[in-house]
User: Fold this.
Amino acid sequence: MTEAPDQLHSTALLDVHRTLGARLIEFGGWLMPVQYAGILEEHRAVRERAGLFDLSHMGELFVEGADAGDALAAAVVSDPRTLAVGRAQYSMIVAADGGVIDDLIVYRLGPTRFLVVANAGNAAIVSDVLVERLGRWKAVLDDRSLATSLVAIQGPLAASILGPLTTVDLDSLKYYAIAEGEVAGIPALVARTGYTGEDGFEIFVDWARGPDVWTALAEAGAPAGVTPIGLGARDTLRLEAGMPLYGNELDRETNPFEAGLGRVVKLEKPGDFVGRAALEKVAREGIAKRLVGLVVTGRGIARHGYPIDASERRTGTVTSGTQSPTLGVPIAMAYVAPGDGEPGTILDVEVREQRVSAEVVPLPFYKRGR
Amino acid sequence: MVPPELRYTTDHEWVRVDGDTATIGITDFAAQQLGDVVFVDLPPAGTKLEQFGTFGVVESVKAVSDLYAPVTGEVREANQDLSAKPELINSDPYGAGWMIRVAIANAAQVDSLLDAAAYEKLTSAG
Assistant:
């Protein structure tokens, strides 16, 4: 997947989105729906009922071979060898200096077969880097990003809508698990993963079957009020759930420890991996910045790029911010100096040259009831 | 259809003239483009505005947008209801979603603004 960067992809669902009246934008090299009915309404639908997402822009990289587990363990910061077949782990691929190339979900599909899901805008880079890192191992990469449609259903009613449509037993499909089966008669991989803070499923099918899966879920979910969800609400949902977005909270200038994701880095795993030396140094010597959650208590909304001060001293920058639809207050994630990141600390966000008070709070902002 | 009796800016503000007072808001087109409005920052009474200078900010979930004064003048009043109910800008942009009332300093400035037909043409041209 090494197309010119200016070539805009569209998913197999583009006509479906147009028919639904979606507003379309460019995102990560793809033409994607940003909203249908409106961000607030879509956000609430996912928190209260269920939402349908077209995530076909994500990258699906299948890694297979006798050494697939060892090869991936040497390529990413987590240890995919520890996964049981049918389970998944959140992971990251970093450069030698520890900077994050992308955050990933790694699924174990078989003893020697894995699925790595990368962000749309990074899929080509991750594919290239993985191919290079798999070089000396008995493992090959099959980039099926442009052959795979990915449809997600997320929200408290997701399981009750998907259940009757699939041969996969959802009751025994745990969080961060994946199973092969059918959805509406279509061969699919069904994963209990998501990016919303709700229960939900991500369904991988052949590219051409994306619209069929979408339509089946939309029709089955209509009585329950299932709603199509664009990237706008996807962003507010993940922000409330305290989940990082590559390009905002994660980039090549940031290591996993700074992003509060040190638990993902398995320094104790056997064998070398790319970034180990740099990340061991970070673990030993400490971080240069720290990701925090902020609730704005003054008047204003903290937005990406706004500066943050701690008693007249510049301490950091907002990475993501919005008015929280669920909590009704402005929330943000930000990098600040490590000493300014304790919950309860009061900081100032510079909103259009005005200082607006914000309090450091623990992440996530929103956690669903069980 | 935009209200025929109002004047408009190319930045999508509307103006309703009543004697020497201009009531100012943003158009339905602008509100729809912004999406759900969640925050509005307006100037207090007494603030002096310059034509086409910024007078405030309107924010949707996703975007921040500056507001531009269609005329020069002094702010008489800002719509206090909008701090608790910014969604009025989406639901009733030409009515309860009004933003400020301004004492018009130079009536000739109003005549230089777009009329409804010209504004309609601007927005339908995309």
